[in-house]
């Protein structure tokens, strides 16, 4: 006998009435508070993200502080020093157990984070912030094609449409082994095409090495976010994650500073003492706040949603860089068209994820009945 619910008929009147019952006031208040906290967190995240990008670009590209490895190393050292008193409240035994169980993930996250920060800061030496942000808008393609999005929809010869797409597909499949829905994959292809149109205008204003480093940083950011999401699913709080990762990233960055920048900085520092101190302190404090907000976003909202939310700050950064950093000449018709296409892809992807979440919620409610 076929159950009436599975044969396409309407559910019994009692079940339909129960489904139409209004939510309790307590549950409604919880949802409102949760939504308000998410809105506040997203707002703080976007402000910190935009502020850090503008400050780094101004420091490395306009203020003459051309020491990206030193800047990144100071970010890590400052984070470790500030978080150490808070993290050590947990006791040594808790840290020993966590490090024993999760040291491979911590090493991978620290390495990816160091590469992401260093390569991105190096690219800002000889690339506009506008082009930097457009390239990094492919992070969702790096983070989520994970699910073979580009491999399913594009031929092998076209897999370079999104920066680092081939590497990203392999990395994400190995880490997550999940596949996208057709709608998600199509949205990611639209994002990738928009990025390609915006970047390849025929006359790039950034130096080739800076563009290559920015693309590599985008791939590393995808790996960092994927591993962070998996590691924090094991209930590792934001402060301890940043505390563990900072020394690993510092160990990766410090040798490069010593080899490539130490002598130049010794010659630069005496004549620019105050400005160098202000840049290092301000950017380190802002980077610490951003990293904490970023990790909290991944934990509360998920890594994919964090990348999609982060893309909507691109328009704001493009406008701010145009008026504050004098990059108005970067806005060609092709770049504007590419940005519009990419943002349309972001909107479609967000809509697809919201619809999928609602469908899962409905199935859970039906199953509980």
Task: Summarize the structure in short.
With 369 residues, this protein is mainly alpha-helical. It is built from 16 helices and no strands.
SSE topology sketch:
Blueprint: H1 13-19, H2 25-62, H3 68-87, H4 92-123, H5 129-136, H6 139-143, H7 149-153, H8 165-175, H9 182-199, H10 208-232, H11 238-260, H12 262-268, H13 273-301, H14 303-311, H15 313-324, H16 333-368
Question: What key phrases describe this protein's structure?
Answer:
transmembrane helix, EamA domain-containing protein, 369 residues, transmembrane
Description:
The structure is a single chain. By secondary structure, the chain is an all-alpha fold. It has one domain. Helices cover 77% and strands 0% of the residues. The chain is built from 16 helices and no strands. It has helices at 13-19, 25-62, 68-87, 92-123, 129-136, 139-143, 149-153, 165-175, 182-199, 208-232, 238-260, 262-268, 273-301, 303-311, 313-324, 333-368. The two termini are 20 Å apart. The model is unreliable at 1-9, 14-21 and 144-170 (pLDDT under 50).
């Amino acid at each position: 006998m076929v159950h009436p619910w599975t044969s396409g008929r309407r559910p019994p009147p009692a079940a339909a009435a129960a489904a139409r019952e209004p939510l309790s006031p307590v549950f409604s208040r919880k949802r409102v508070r949760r939504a308000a906290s998410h809105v506040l967190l997203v707002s703080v995240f976007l402000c910190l993200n935009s502020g850090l990008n503008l400050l780094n670009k101004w420091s490395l590209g306009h203020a003459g502080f051309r020491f990206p490895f030193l800047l990144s190393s100071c970010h890590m050292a400052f984070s470790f020093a500030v978080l150490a008193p808070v993290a050590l409240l947990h006791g040594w035994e808790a840290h020993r157990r966590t490090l024993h169980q999760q040291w491979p993930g911590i090493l991978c996250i620290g390495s990816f984070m160091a590469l992401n920060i260093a390569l991105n800061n190096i690219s800002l030496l000889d690339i506009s912030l506008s082009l930097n942000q457009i390239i990094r808008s492919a992070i969702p393609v790096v983070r989520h094609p994970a699910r073979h999005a580009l491999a399913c929809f594009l031929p092998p010869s076209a897999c370079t449409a999104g920066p680092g797409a081939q590497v990203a597909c392999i990395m994400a499949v190995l880490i997550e082994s999940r596949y996208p829905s057709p709608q998600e994959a199509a949205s990611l292809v639209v994002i990738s095409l928009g990025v390609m149109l915006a970047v390849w205008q025929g006359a790039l204003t950034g130096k080739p090495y800076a563009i290559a480093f920015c693309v590599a940083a985008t791939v590393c950011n995808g790996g960092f976010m994927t591993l962070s999401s998996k590691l924090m699913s094991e209930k590792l709080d934001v402060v301890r994650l940043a505390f563990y990762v900072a020394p690993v990233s510092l160990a990766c960055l410090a040798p490069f500073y010593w080899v490539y920048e130490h002598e130049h900085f010794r010659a630069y520092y005496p004549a620019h003492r105050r400005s160098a101190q202000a840049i290092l302190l301000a950017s380190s404090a802002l980077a610490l706040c951003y990293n904490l907000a970023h990790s909290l976003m991944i934990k509360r909202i998920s890594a994919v949603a964090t990348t999609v939310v982060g893309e909507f700050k691109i328009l704001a950064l493009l406008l701010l860089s145009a008026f504050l950093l004098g990059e108005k000449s970067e806005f060609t018709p092709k770049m504007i068209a590419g940005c519009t296409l990419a943002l349309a892809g972001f909107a479609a992807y967000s809509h697809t994820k919201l619809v999928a979440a609602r469908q899962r919620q409905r199935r859970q409610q039906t199953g509980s009945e």
